[in-house]
Amino acid sequence: KAVVEKILWQRSLQMRDVQQAWQESSEGKRMLEFRSNLPAYNEKEAILSVISKNQVVIISGETGCGKTTQIPQFILESEIESIHGAACNIICTQPRRISAMSVSERVAFERGEKLGESVGYKVRLEGMKGRDTHLLFCTTGILLRRLLADRNLKGVTHVIVDEIHERGMNEDFLLIVLKELLPRRPELKLILMSATLDAELFSSYFNGAPVVNISGFTHPVRTLFLESILETTGYRLTPSNQIDDYGQERLWKMNKQAPRKRKSQIASAVEDAIRSADFKDYSLQTQESLSCWNPDCIGFSLIEYILCNICEDERPGAVLVFMTGWDDISSLKEKLQAHTVLGDPNRVLLLTCHGSMASSEQKEIFEEPEDGVRKIVLATNIAETSITIDDVVFVLDCGKAKETSYDALNNAPCLHPTWISKASAHQRRGRAGRVQPGECYHLYPRCVYDGFAEYQLPEILRTPLQSLCLQIKSLRLGSISDFLSRALQSPEILAVQNAVEYLKIIGALDVNENLTILGHYLTKLPMEPKLGKMLLLGAILNCLDPILTVVAGLSVRDPFLTPLDKKDLAEAAKSQFSGAYSDHLALVRAYEGWKVAEIDLGGYEYCWKNFLSFQSMKSIDALRREFKGMLTDIGLVDSNTTSCNTWSYDVNLIRAVICYGLYPGICSVLHNEKSFTLKTMEDGQVLLYSNSVNARETKIPYPWLVFNEKIKVNSVFLRDSTAVSDSVVLLFGGSLSKGDADNHIKMLGGYLEFFMEPTVADMHQSIRRELDDFIQS
Ligand code: ADP
Ligand code: MG
């Protein structure tokens, strides 16, 4: 023990000498000067003193005040000062891998070191950490995994959980686990850091832990909503009660006044504005508009128009544009690059900022452009709180963000764009006033803003509980409902019970709520369990390609477009792909056609002719590749052979695999003279969405439809269905384990009894016959 202590002491002295030498160098002095101007620096002593007296401390302060880069450093420095430097082990978690990497690099730079010396990082599959690393930035997922193997976090002295205001799933998860750990490790310090003030909630969760607030300073920001932005075009947007051509209420009326700028430019900007104001994304009728026929992208022309105005008329200062997601950023970038002013590299430095950018791209964001060149950064909500670009003066906010789905182990993106909260809009606006008074253009009307929620719902309350429950089990955190009841905000008990029940029905959990082998595999796939199931069986039964398309297709926005004014044409276009009584198989055919056309660079035209979304096709293509890679990683697919596609032509087998995934989403088909009706056990009669290929049929030669989604409007509607036979339901619906087969037959009998007149015994016999045939074939 004495020897170890001596070594630690010597190393600590060395660390102290190195830091002193750096701080006395001219660069070190300049860096210290910069750091000491950050608001966090004023609170350094207060923060250190509260941490020394309490096990849990909550620190809040405006974005950019220096929480992430300074506070872990304060702790490290004070440990080094007190000759405990070599004994301390600080872990600071970040919600995203990109921030873990960029922040660690910045902190090492501020300390005049290389990454991997006293400061390091670790994210999934990557890291930089040395023997002398005492401050480690990592993703929350990495710390969760470490806790799995090392329940007491042996040797760790400080845990800092950053960005807790985001209320990401992993962070909420981690807090439950850490709260239980604290009594077992009384000397461990926990520091929670948050941007906006919801600190009381966290304080009361940790038995009244003290809150330190770093007061910051931001300059005033002039705020323009869509109405005011439009006035600059010479048009005026006023609320109206008119009814439009489609019988829907138009919320807005445009009053034309004398336009000041070039007409064509204004016309398309205004068109975009109406679109965002009405949120009738499909109401544009011109052909060109199909190209930006993307319900989630708001006003590209409007953005272009505003950017152009800023570049031509406004004072210097960088522009930050908040976009919905990566697809929109890349499409907008393409559009801007073709613009005479905005695409001119002598006038504009056009950059992007998103979760998967390379680190060279990251550096450019922070650099100052040359004189006379305006920096424009197209960003996702990552620039809202975790990355601060100092010279921003103008902010454009499209008002939407992609909400992240559950990603404890996979860091997989989710694909649902939603309106942001007022708190987020406030954050975005604040980005404009960092260095001088700024301006913020919200690209939506004031009344839309008024309808935003105050805060975004925590992820734990908005993501599908099924995946969450599987993750709790895979992290071996005990009973699902007990675990969730200890969360900062727990999901409803009934919702948890439903999720657990569902997981049992699909065979991911056994009767004792333990992960089955299937469940174990599902935790390795980032999509909903039902889609994961489909993918696994597609791989096992060697019909992977079509199943990859189905699963990718169900993960993106519906690629079949149905513009209101061309509904019939669009439905007719989709019906060309039908023939198998399956929307899923129609998608497979459409994708295969697209793939062939795309090779000859005709993919776009193909989409245009067939009312398909080009963007969705591209996304499906990318997702297919990603999913296949995951299956290869798990070891289910051998990428060197084509054996995974031996049976890909067999439509009935594909039907079976689809059934395996979608069960218990099943309804019976009951024919009468002219057509058929559909019934599910829970809802009674249900209807098909009008764009389903099965909705155009008068007869379906199968007794069952499996479906992906049920939507309750006035009646219950089914979206995306596939017709399947009795034997397929019997073999591929529900659990495949032997012990359950009898139960399963009984259950199927129950269904039959429920829906059909003839006796159950007869039915059983006919099923058994069919089953025998099936097995023999
Ligand atoms: P907070 O976590 O409170 O939002 P940070 O600690 O991330 O703030 O950042 C504090 C300041 O440090 C920022 O305002 C910015 O000036 C500067 N900064 C942070 N990261 C970088 C970087 N990678 N390059 C240059 N400056 C940076
Ligand atoms: Mg931060």
pLDDT under 50 segments (min length 5)? 241-259, 278-297, 405-415, 735-740, 754-761
Strand runs, count: 23
Shape: globular
**Hetero groups:** adenosine-5'-diphosphate, magnesium ion
User: What percent of residues are in strands?
Assistant: 15-25%
Radius of gyration using CA atoms only: 29 Å
Average pLDDT works out at 82
Estimated helix fraction: 40-55%
Biggest sheet: strand arrangement: 4-3-5-2-6-7-1-8
What structural class should be given to the helix and strand makeup? alpha/beta
**Spatial gap, N to C terminus:** 72 Å
Per DSSP, the total helix count is: 32
Question: What's the story with the biggest beta sheet?
Answer: 8 strands, mixed
Catalytic activity: ATP + H2O = ADP + phosphate + H(+)
Enzyme class: hydrolase
Organism: Pisum sativum (Garden pea)
Protein name: RNA helicase
Note down, in words, how this protein is organized.
The structure is a single chain. The protein is 45% helix and 16% strand. The chain has 777 residues and is an alpha/beta fold. The chain has an 8-stranded mixed sheet, sandwiched between helices. Strands 9-18-15-12-14-13 form a 6-stranded parallel sheet, with helices on both faces. Strands 19-20-21-23-22 form a 5-stranded mixed beta barrel. Helix 8 links the parallel strand 6 and strand 7. The longest helix is centred in the N-terminal third of the chain and has 23 residues. The radius of gyration is 29 Å and the shape is globular. The relative contact order is 0.06. About 8% of the residues have low confidence. It binds adenosine-5'-diphosphate and magnesium ion. The site of adenosine-5'-diphosphate has 15 residues, from helix 5 and helix 6. Keywords: ATP-binding, Helicase, Hydrolase, Nucleotide-binding, RNA-binding.
